[in-house]
Amino acid sequence: MKLSSFITLSFYGIKEILFKKHKPILGTVILTDKCNLHCKHCAVNNITGELYPYEQLQKEMKQLYERGVRILFFCGGETFLWEDKGKKVRDLVKEARQIGFLIINIVTNGTFPIDVPEADLILLSLDGDREHHNEIRGDVFDVIIENAEHATKDNIIFYMAVNQLNKNMIGKVGEITVNTKNVRAVSFNFHTPYPGTEGLSLSVDEKEKCCEDIKELMKQKVPVFNLRSAFPYLIHNSFPTPCEQCVVVEKGKIFCCGRCIEVQGLCERCGYFFAAEYALIFRCHFRVIFDMLRTYLKFIR
Question: pLDDT digit string (tens) for 143-158?
Answer without folding.
Answer: 999 999 999 999 999 9
